[in-house]
Structures
1.
Amino acid sequence: MRVLIIKTSALGDIIHALPVIDYLRQVSTGVEIDWVVEEPFLPVLEHNPGLSQIHVVRTRKWRKAPFSAETRKDLRALRMELRERCYDLVFDIQGNLKSGLIAWLTGARERVGFTREVAQEKANCLFTTRRIPFRDSDRNVTDRYLRVVSALFGRDYRGMELTGAIVSAPEDEAAAERYRAGLPGGPVILFQVGTTWNTKLWYPEGWSELARRVVARYPGATILINWGSPGEKALGERIAGEVGPAVHLLPWLRIRELIPVLRRVDLVIGGDTGPVYLAAAVGTPTVSFYRATSAATYAPQGKRHRTVQAAMECAACYRTSCDRDGECRRSITVDALFGAVTDLIGQYPNGKDAPC
């Protein structure tokens, strides 16, 4: 059997979908699994031994010039590439118009996706031949992806041990190992201070106070700041200036370079954002906080992870801007996050050796 997974973006969503590979390999002997992904997120998948082929798409570029000769050429090539694989099943777990079109381009008779009520864009349902409803128990986004994929195999994913492995190139692993060897011997904790929505961010003073408490509680600890924009870099520099030499800014890292670094730190702290989910996928404990989004839906699962939901009656509002933004940020207290840090480090001082 040859199966195609369409999950093109974004970083965190692709990571949440990785267990579908393990599910398919467990329920279907000899299955070949292909995946469609946006070019920036290829490093999450490109070394995965469970995948037979990866189709890379560049839909952002295509949207900018939909009628250009280059776009038409790319789409013709994608259609040919997909149809040559002769898929028995296509699972569209993206749920928007572009993913629906990609599913249609495959020419597959069985194209499975979301119901109209939950699809990101209702037009997606024009391109699927079967639409799978969620159950009330499918609260976490990974559960929802697995519900769609498992519906045709007659075996519920619940009770199965499923992982979402991410494999790096040897040269990237070696570079991260050299970087880690140059740090002090105490615990290494990474702060992921940035994300895409303002309503997912924490407040700067909170990051600095949390860093002070970590350094005071764990002498010899190193705090690394990951950043991806000038604003995030400036925040990292502010934290380092206010806390002292225990805080280090990472160099700007591409996804493929960041993955093995996350594998080598002892704990990652951040909001609802891709690097936190990358950390969880490679086995690193996490403390994550949620404001406009829901911890129940997106938070990493398992004993090595702690979550804090904003203490607001309107939390998980999914708004990208809000007049009460400052109040919401401060409803996530330093005490709550620091308590989660000490709880994890106390239980699992060697985070990578902790049970899942």
2.
Amino acid sequence: MRLSTFLLSTVIGLALFPGLTLAKTQSVETATLAGGCFWCTESDMEKLDGVLDVVSGYAGGELKNPTYKQVSSGKTGHIEVVNVRFDTSQVSYEQVLDQFFRHIDPTDNQGSFVDRGPQYRPAIFYHNEQQKQIAERFIKEIDALGVFKKPLKTELIKFDEFWVAEDYHQDYYKRNPLRYKYYRYASGRDQYLDDIFGEQREEQPKTLREWIDEKNKLADIKPYIRPSDEQIRAMLTETQYDVTQNDGTERPFNNAYWDNKQLGIYVDIVSGEPLFSSLDKYKSGTGWPSFTKPLDGSYIVTKPDNSLFYTRTEVRSRFADSHLGHVFEDGPAPTGLRYCMNSAAMRFVPLEDMKQQGYETYLSLFE
């Protein structure tokens, strides 16, 4: 078809069918990653949205078309790797690396969990200079974050050639689910990752990029000091101590602020961190002070709470680590959230006292 005819037919088609859109050209890139046993790495990388396919294989050695037996001997110079093909319109190379690092031990260059030897060490085989630069920068940021507790020892190696592993290694976790689950559990991989990222890391994942951005943001906020345990015990009432230190809950309709209508802000009873504003407070009918959003999200930390028969989202203060309450998704507009807090975990600062007590930053909200 001539170009002019194609363009004319396209214009006519769009005119006749306004909802018709041209298909977006898919841009595919490949990441070659070594994270120990390729059964596990393949399984974890295939969970990432935007990943098209993951193939297990070998890279880094000089022997052509090596076998698993040869590579596992540790004498060929190869490393067990996966080739990850991904759609760059859906997921970036850094996001692929983020998923990769959150499912391996990047600090062990002598092997990976129960699999020992150089053929199981962590590595990134970069395909071009851009991938190399992204990986170098990201590794430095993760190291500075300190989430892995040890320095990263993940090698950056220029990609040369990828050799596909034997058929029985491909999609091993799907073809042999029982053997795979047994191996994975016995390897200690998930136990290690749970210790680093928490047992809810799969259900409520938090990316390394989110951790890094959060840390950078915290560097710009005013820090608050958590007193010693002895000081906290002395300064709090029995109820305040039980709520903030023992994750307790006060009685509804029988607490200081559930019906407070004064203008001002609510701060952490232990550290003074600014938590909520009266401007975001509403009558929820629960008997506890409820808010649609925090005053400053930098001072709020949320985490899964499995203390009941279902999972709730606990709310804690960042610096004092006080238990404040829980947040639910049944609140009013504009957020749809209900931050259900304990009065005993907070101290109310009236609007007229905010400047004197060092909270003048938030006065503009009340103008």
